[in-house]
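It is worth pausing here to work through a concrete case rather than discussing structure prediction in the abstract. The textbook approach is simple: state the sequence, then state the predicted structure, then interpret. We follow exactly that order.
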Amino acid sequence: MTDGPESYTHDGFRYLLEPSSARFLKKRVIPDLDTIERMPGVTLIKRNSVRTVFRVPMKESVVFLKRYHVRTFFDRMKYLVVPSRAMTEWLAARTMTAAGLPTIHAVMMGEKRSGRILLDGTLATIEIPDANDLVPVLHWRLREPGLKAARRRLLRDLAELIRRFHDAGFVHNDLHSGNILVTGEPETAKLHLIDLHTVKIVAKTSRRSRIANLSKMLHSLVTGTTRSERRRILSEYEGDDPVLGDIETVSRKIFGRIYALERRRLKSRARRCLRSSSSFDLARVGEYSLWFRRDIPPAGVLLAIGDHLLSMRKGGRDVLKDSRRSAISRQILAGPLLWGRTVVKETRIPEALEILKNAFRDSRGMASWKNGNGLDLHQVRVGRPVALAVKGRWPLIRESYLLMEDLSECTRLDLYVLKRFAGELDAAGRREKRDFVRRLAHFVRRLHRKGIYHGDLKAVNMFVKPSELGNPIFFLVDYDRVTFGDSVSPRRRIKNLAQLAASVAVLITKTDRMRFFREWAPDPEALEAMRSINAGVEKALSRKIVVEMEPIE
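Step two, the predicted structure:
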């Protein structure tokens, strides 16, 4: 940029304009700033509490127009002493470009103030053509074996870009993979830093800020990279001129922060199912409070509940369970975006004491709704909950109806075992049985490693679906007694193992059980303590009714 920005005033806004784009901005954008959404070709990209973003086509390029919201008294006071988001991003973009860092090209910044009080802010940047977010590129474009070198080069470039960014005196308080764009073919891909409204320009980037930025970036790469790749990014960030100190000490600190950030993210995401968000919504219809996924119509939920109650009165093959405390049936869930079968689980309140208890705790229906969505977030396969209807109002909460994904193509775990492994097995059958036990152990081990405890981990609460490769895939159902934590205690681990062992037919032999323990062992110490674990399971089994060669229910 050889020329400085041009100053311009219009409708109470004071603008800084890049000369190369000033004519278009004055003619097409600035006069229609408040009605830009209605202009031909303009697309709404994002709208949240922080900003609204539009895509505005120009003659030879495209502009992203951001409108930053100033909504609260705190915002107005804050921007008396610190630069606005628009000004921060404008200065950061120009300073980073001058430092040779690949980033956005800002062409307009505008502020509207009354005295010194900020009322509005806007920023326009040129679109980076054919750009993609970093994680999808790593997930899909660079997964092929022939692109290993390109993948490694891109991650090395990422480490070097962050190091250059820090060495030049910048700190990005929202440095995650979603703010890194990738352009070009895999072998020649380039990276670009975007979304700069939290960037700070400092005289020298502190070690603390470097570690905080790296922790957030590596956490955002958890789903797209391996642990060894993330360690390599750290090593390549340090290079031949280390600034963080001992790499092993720093790695432990950063990976500890990544774990803490992930726990915080999961807790925050899990709460979204209780309020209106991008994925969920809630409503009050008659005597029901509804929580539901946005692609599920409330009217369809109520119709499915009505059909469920009719099925329970008439009986028939759609009724899966009818007991004093719960009833389950299969129904059609209808709506403009979804037509299909669902499972309706009714939680009954047979006693006044149960109503009193629900005034001070989550009802079983609400616990299932929260836990099912929590398991889905933890990437544990479940009969996914799609809606919850609760009858009554606090504190007189009564029946609830949970609508779940139908797993009719799956088989209940105890029935699967009886069907596949009863009688004399040939060599192929024995191999299948060993593989089944191994994969089931891996599933339970994964639950425990994630700090997930299912208080009723019986075979009737697990379903099995063979994959296209013939490998069993496991699903959890009936998850109102699931808890999430940092770890699962040895006592609870043993209880889960005993629950499974007691509820699966005895054709899963003691040898199979020992094979299960070896695969399940979460660490070498647990493997060495296998005899003690086995003794604990045997003791727990002595207090249970062990299934022989018939289903448990």
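Step three, interpretation. The radius of gyration is 29 Å. The mean pLDDT is 86.
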